[in-house]
Automatic annotation (TrEMBL):
It is an enzyme of class 1 (oxidoreductase). Its cofactor is heme b. Residues 115-367 form the Plant heme peroxidase family profile domain. Its EC number is 1.11.1.11. It comes from the Eukaryota. It holds the Pfam family peroxidase. GO terms for molecular function: L-ascorbate peroxidase activity. This is L-ascorbate peroxidase. It comes from Riccia fluitans. Keywords: Oxidoreductase. Belongs to the peroxidase family. Ascorbate peroxidase subfamily.
């Protein structure tokens, strides 16, 4: 029997295979390597092994960039030991391409606000006291299923789901969970906000039975707003400073009475050209521009055409919240810095990662071998 062969695999390798399985690119094309499997003469898997190939590796892009211990490709019949495998819930190249499509969608539809709200309502169902995924809620794409879309808090978000559907169809190797968070971070950045240090690889829920329970998102008019905000956001593992920073997302968008029950039918700031569908009441004058005007406006409360929800107002009254509201109204750079970190944290709540720990799409993979932890070793042949 041929000795095991170590095959280095680039960090750009991404598959839907689980970490227990490997994929190598042979001269005959990409091949799944499973416990004890061997390559056939053609370089493809043998008949009985094909089933496993299609079952575990429905789509992937793979590239061997180095073979540390040999100079030639694996030979037919030879056992291949995969040194390192990166599997992913989403394909990084497709994520990058989808980001460009999201930018075009935003330029055309001016839909930044609702894309941000969609992602926040997907992740905001998270309960840090529950360890089981997806029962714990969070950024898992479950908001696309009708039981969750029908939650009172999600009224209107079906429009955002629909807007992103063509992009999902075009890039099938992106998980819904990643797509929603990608669209939101892109929407912040395209509105002039900070660069969000995002990572990707969120596994998505597969069916309506995996939806979040209703009631985990905040109410805009609870009896005790500060107590309510703390209960809801602490349950997600977020703190006072993050509550205030994230509320700053209301610098974008509008409230519509027919959706949430809050806000005016329209104001002088929500009619006119180039604003997407008109109507509703905004928190700020330039509600398609991300800046710190939300904090200035909720402090001033001087314009009847601008919205201040009870949960916005409390940020100017509760001493701990007010500390941050004052700071962000004064110092936009401080707001941008804190917002970017809080948004990234929000986008990761409850996520199950594949690969473990997620990955960034902001740096192109370097064209050189990256030694990685050996995940498939225990399944490979040692004879
Ligand atoms: C602090 C507790 C929060 C409450 C009570 C709250 C409440 C609301 C309400 C009532 C609306 C109007 C929805 C409609 O009628 O269509 C809204 C819109 C919005 N919310 Fe929040 N929100 C909160 C936090 C957040 C957070 C953390 C984010 C994002 C990080 C966010 C982002 C948005 C955006 C962008 C919109 C505008 C949506 C659009 O124009 O379609 N909100 N929010």
């Amino acid at each position: 029997m041929a000795a095991s062969t170590m095959v280095g695999v680039s960090s750009s390798l991404h598959t839907r295979a689980t970490p227990a399985h490997g994929v190598v690119l042979t001269p005959a094309g990409p091949v799944a390597v499973l416990p004890g499997l061997r390559l056939s003469a053609s370089g493809k898997l043998r008949k009985q092994e094909r089933k496993l190939e299609s079952e575990f590796v429905p789509a992937f892009t793979a590239r061997i960039v180095t073979q540390k211990t040999r100079n030639s490709s694996p030979a037919a019949g030879e056992r291949v030991r995969v040194m390192s495998v990166r599997s992913a819930a989403s394909n990084p190249d497709q994520l990058r391409a989808a980001r460009e499509d999201v930018k075009k969608l935003i330029a055309e539809k001016k839909c930044n606000p609702i894309l941000i709200r969609l992602a926040w309502h997907d992740s905001g169902s998270y309960d840090k006291n529950i360890s089981e995924w997806p029962k714990r809620g969070g950024a898992n794409g479950s908001i696309r299923f009708s039981p969750e879309l029908a939650h009172g808090a999600n009224a209107g978000l079906i429009n955002a789901v629909k807007l992103l559907e063509p992009i999902k169809e075009k890039y099938p190797d992106i998980s819904y969970a990643d797509l929603y968070q990608l669209a939101s971070a892109t929407a912040i950045e395209e509105a002039g906000g900070p660069k969000i240090p995002m990572k990707y690889g969120r596994v998505a829920t597969k069916g309506p039975e995996e939806c979040a329970i209703e009631g985990n998102l905040p109410d805009a008019g609870p009896p005790d707003p500060s107590d309510h905000l703390r209960k809801v956001f602490y349950r997600m593992g977020l703190n006072d400073q993050e509550i205030v920073a994230l509320s700053g997302a209301h610098t974008l968008g509008r409230s519509r009475p027919e959706r949430s029950g809050w806000g005016k039918q329209e104001t002088k700031y929500t009619v006119g050209e180039n604003i997407g569908a008109p109507g509703g009441q905004s928190w700020t004058v330039q509600w398609l521009k991300f800046d710190n005007s939300y904090f200035k406006d909720i402090k001033a409360q001087s314009d009847e055409d601008l919205l201040v929800l009870p949960t916005d107002k409390i940020l100017t009254e509760d001493p701990e919240f007010k500390k941050y509201t004052d700071k962000y109204a004064e110092d936009e750079a401080a707001f941008f810095k804190d917002y970017a970190l809080a948004h990234a944290k929000l986008s990761e709540l409850g996520a199950k990662w594949d690969p473990e720990g997620g990955f960034s799409i902001d740096e192109e993979p370097k064209n050189e071998p990256v030694p990685e932890k050996f995940v498939a070793a225990k399944y490979s042949s040692e004879e």
